[in-house]
């Protein structure tokens, strides 16, 4: 009887610990969602200030986005390595992670996550606005579910199809009419459409590596520093192909000549670092399904964040009633696609 009581007590302690970790994971995922929107807004504002000194062409906008993203990810990766060193992780641990072959898939996945997904999302949002760009990015779980069904032979029930229909309907509702003062609205939506595809494929490729390695080591090593080098290489290739190799040095010259741009980029680095590492840890604590449900609720959070940052004079922000309605419909659709409500909030099933 005593043994049975001790086993029951140990089981309860174990389950309570899982619940605490799951709740922490959900909290980190929510912080990651907020950080993603704030990072996007600071990044777009910095890009707009830099681009005033350059030709207004789509190729330059893409190169500028790659260079800024590379700069932010590299600095953020260094910050995380310093943070890890302070918490007692030796530099030799990064060499050990490098030797784990499966962990390198994150580096390959960062090609889609950086030059394709994140860069296109930033370019697109600069054209169509934060809420509308995040509505398109919110399609990521839907595309992940579709790809999982096709390539991973995952079972997809009626619930998932209902969620997909709702999410797509939300995008259509939000995209019916552009808000005031937004130029190239539909071009921005089209460019942003590359983001959920890139994010979905990145998630499928890199999930295993996150499971077998410390996310706070894998993320700064591969997703941030490794990804930043890939983005800079892509920028060099585009510049060389178009005959504008001097763009990159000129961009850095403008960055370091204006303190306000450095301030905006510093804020971008901070929130990007929180978002990247926060969601990696969240996935390991509460699971990818629950973490994704919270992370891709950004269409909702982009509205109050946009209003606040607009009041502060950091960005210009406007959203239509249809945009707000579409954002809510998208988030509901995402929740239905990713999990049954009973599964999503049953924290003991982690």
TrEMBL record:
Keyword Cytoplasm set for record: no
Chief place of localization: membrane
Organism this protein belongs to: Lactonifactor longoviformis DSM 17459
The organism's place on the tree of life at top rank: Bacteria
Family: Belongs to the EamA transporter family.
Entry protein name: EamA-like transporter family protein
Localisation per UniProt entry: Membrane
InterPro entries: AA-Vitamin_Transporters, EamA_dom, EmrE-like
The keyword Transmembrane helix belongs to this UniProt entry's keyword annotation: yes
Ranges for domain EamA: 75-175
Alphabetical UniProt keywords: Membrane, Transmembrane, Transmembrane helix
GO cellular component, one term: membrane
Topological type in the membrane: Multi-pass membrane protein
Residue spans crossing the bilayer: 21-39, 59-84, 105-125, 131-151, 158-177, 183-201, 221-245, 251-274, 281-302, 314-338
């Amino acid at each position: 009887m005593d043994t049975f009581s001790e086993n029951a007590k140990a089981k309860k302690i174990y389950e309570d610990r899982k619940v605490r970790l799951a709740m922490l994971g959900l909290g980190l995922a929510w912080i990651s969602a907020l950080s993603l929107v704030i990072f996007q807004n600071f990044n777009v504002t910095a890009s707009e200030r830099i681009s005033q000194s350059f030709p207004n062409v789509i190729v330059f906008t893409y190169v500028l986005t790659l260079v800024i993203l590379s700069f932010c990810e590299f600095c953020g990766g260094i910050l995380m390595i310093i943070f890890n060193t302070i918490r007692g992780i030796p530099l030799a641990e990064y060499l050990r992670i490098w030797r784990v072959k499966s962990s390198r898939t994150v580096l390959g996945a960062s090609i889609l996550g950086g030059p394709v997904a994140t860069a296109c999302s930033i370019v697109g949002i600069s054209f169509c606005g934060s809420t509308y760009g995040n509505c398109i990015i919110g399609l990521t779980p839907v595309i992940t579910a579709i790809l999982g069904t096709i390539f991973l032979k995952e079972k997809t029930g009626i619930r998932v199809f209902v969620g997909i229909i709702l999410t797509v309907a939300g995008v259509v509702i939000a995209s019916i009419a552009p808000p005031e003062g937004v130029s190239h609205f539909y071009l921005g939506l089209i460019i942003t459409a590359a983001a959920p595809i890139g994010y979905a494929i990145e998630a499928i490729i890199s999930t295993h590596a996150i499971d077998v390695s410390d996310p706070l080591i894998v993320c700064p090593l591969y997703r941030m520093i490794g990804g930043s080098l890939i983005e800079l290489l892509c920028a060099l290739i585009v510049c060389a192909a178009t005959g504008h190799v001097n763009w990159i040095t000129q961009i850095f010259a403008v960055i370091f000549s204006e303190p306000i741009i450095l301030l905006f980029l510093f804020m971008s680095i901070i929130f990007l670092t929180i978002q990247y590492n926060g969601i990696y840890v969240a996935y390991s604590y509460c699971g990818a399904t629950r973490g994704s449900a919270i992370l891709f609720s950004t269409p909702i959070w982009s509205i109050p964040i946009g209003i606040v940052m607009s009041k502060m004079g950091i960005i210009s922000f406007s959203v239509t009633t249809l945009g707000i309605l579409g954002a809510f419909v998208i988030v509901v659709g995402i929740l239905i696609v990713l999990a049954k409500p009973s599964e999503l909030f049953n924290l003991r099933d982690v």
